[in-house]
Each structure stands twice: as structure tokens, then as C-alpha cells.
Amino acid sequence: MRCCLNSSINLKLRMNCYGYAFGFMCENYAYNESNNYYGSLGKQQPGQFAAGYDPNTNNNVSPSDFMNAIVTNIVADANVLGYTITEYTNNEIEQISTKNSNCRLIAVVTGLDSVLNGCDYHFYMQHNDGTWSHKPGFFPISNKVMKTRNQLNSIVGNITPENLYTNSILTNNNIRAYANRGIYEGGCLKFFKITKPAVYYQHDSNMNVTQNDPGDYLETCYQITTGTHSYKINYTYDDDVFYFVPSQSRQYTITTVAATGEDLDAELYDNSNNSPMVTDASSYDVNITYYLNAGSMYYIDIYSDTGGMKQYSVIIS
After folding, report:
1. Local confidence band at 9 (pLDDT 50, 70, 90 cut-offs)
2. Is residue 135 part of a domain?
3. How many domains does the chain have?
4. DSSP category for residue 103
């Protein structure tokens, strides 16, 4: 089964700060406390998608040198995934992430981590309302400012989502001042624009993810209507999940058109359980015909297990 209706825990555990800022899920994840929630391939790392990540690059380097390595890797990832990324050097943080900008603004910090005995990085993401949010490791998403290094060092016991943050909200006005908090104090900070659609404010009051781009789970999917729509499979085991509400009770046909020789598969779900009503795992393009009831919600999961990026069109008629 590719998708599940109750996947908040998977959304939280399959993204770290990098995956969250870029909107990428971990490729191969299995929920298992014994592996510290990380899954067999680990969380997304800068350079992973370009096959260039070296986990030892954070050892025995300065935050500045580590920042240079991170920048090289995220640019390589963006190139592989079909986006461009450019450094943003304005002193005043503008509202880059807007509804029609087709661009998002992110921040990355580096700093020395005594626990890792080397450098660590962290990413933030700007929202269209002028606030920022971030996702430390397997912790939940937050729009709060981290505590200082001294404040964190004074905590008795483990660092938790409840004691990691102050009560202040990250905004365009304070992100420069507060991004390098915690273990990142004294480190480096850079901002980047990515040619990927801006992220509209996508959390409920508890900072749970309520929308993803374009959706890897049933609860984070995009609405799709009849007609032709263009999308992209970004990497192996990437899922594009949509919801569809028929206007009439009748048979509908769901097809895909991809490049010659490319294989796409699909599953169709209703809203009653986690089992697909129908699966098309045949070779090449998808072709599903099924009777759907007007006003009911259905989910379409389009994916490919053959690896690589795939541009495709999905047609609902």
C-alpha cells in the first residue's frame, strides 16, 4: 500500500529541515523506533539527490567551509531536480514567497555542534504571510525561535519540542537576528531563492502539515479536476497524490501521458479505508476507468518505482 489516510507521524518522520524547506520526502522510510525514526536511507541530506553527499564533510571544518560545501550540494540537488537556486543578498528580507511568484525563499545556517564533534546545518522556509518555519530533524514543524545555546545547555534532561523554543514567532523582521540560535550561534547564515512554487501558509494551529507540494500522502494532496494537468515525479518512490470530487455520477477515465518508454503506476482510493479500489501497475502509462459518485471524495496516487525524474500529464475525463 503506497498511501495511508492517517499519516501525520510519517510526514513528521520522513522530513528533516532540508526536506521540509525544499518539499522533499525521504525516499525509503519505515516507522521503527529502533532506528531512531530515520528509516534505512536516512533523512534528506544536501547533495543526496545529486549523489554527492559525503557525511564526513562536517568533520574538522569551520562553519564557513561547511557552508560552502552545503551550498555546492544544494545547488547540485536543485539542478538534478529541475530547479534553479540563487543566493539572496538583500539586507532587508523581502516577501519573496507570494501566491504568484513561483519562487520560495529559504535560509540555511551552519554552526559547531559539540555532540556531533563537527558542524551541523539547519534550514528555514519563508511563508507567504511573512512568517518563517523550520523542522529540526524528526521533531515537529515549528514557527518559533530556538533558544540560545546557554539556555539549551541549562536544560536538565533531553531536548524536546516543548523546551527547544522560545515563545517568539519567526518573521521577516527577525529571521536574520534569530536564525543562528542554539548550536548555530557564531556560525554562518545565507538566504536563497528557489524557482519552486511558494509555500502558502500550510500549517494548522499546532503546526501540523496540512499541504504538501504536490502531495505524498492522502492528507497532503492537491485537488485535481477534469482535464489535462502537468506534473513531475521528482525521484524514485516519489508519489504525486491528488483528490478528485466528481460533479456527476458516472464512469471516469484517468490516464497519464509520459515520455516514450517511461513507466507510471497509479492507485485509486475512496475516503472509507486505506485499501485502493483499483491499481494500475501495468507497463508504461496509466489507464483506469471506474464509476465514481457525485460529491464523494476520491484519491489518485501516481508514482513510479523505476527511478529518475519523469515529466507527465494526467488526464481525467
Report:
1. very low
2. yes
3. 2
4. -
Q: Is residue 200 part of a domain?
A: no
User: Would you place residue 71 in the very low, low, confident or very high pLDDT band (cuts 50, 70, 90)?
Assistant: very high
Q: Which of 120, 118, 97 is nearest to 191 (CA)?
A: 97
Residues 145 and 227 in one domain: no
Helix residue ranges, H only, the chain: 8-13, 17-22, 63-81, 149-153, 175-178
SS3 220: helix
Reading the block at residue 130, the C-alpha cell is 511573512
pLDDT at 284 over 50: yes
Residue 84 and residue 29 share a domain: yes
The CATH number given to whatever domain includes residue 280 is 2.60.120.380
Residues 30 and 154 in one domain: yes
The domain containing residue 86 runs over which residues?
A: 8-194
pLDDT confidence of residue 236: 57
Q: Are 187 and 88 part of one and the same domain? A: yes
Kindly indicate the confidence band of residue 208, based on its pLDDT and cuts at 50, 70 and 90.
very low
Question: Are 25 and 149 part of one and the same domain?
Answer: yes
User: Are residues 73 and 120 part of one domain?
Assistant: yes
Q: What is the mean pLDDT of the chain?
A: 78
Residue range 169-191: mean pLDDT, rounded: 95
What cell numbers appear for 64 in the block?
A: 564557513
Residue 177 pLDDT exceeds 90: yes
Contact indicator for 52, 79 with CB cutoff of 8 Å:
no
- Contact in structure between 24 and 104 (CB atoms under 8 Å): no
| DSSP3 helix / strand / coil % (the chain, rounded to 5) | 15, 30, 55
Scanning the structure block, which residue is given the C-alpha cell 507527465?
Answer: 312
Q: Pick the residue with more confidence: 2 or 49?
A: 49
Q: Judging by beta carbons within 10 Å of its beta carbon (0-12, 13-18, 19+), is residue 226 exposed, middle or buried?
A: middle
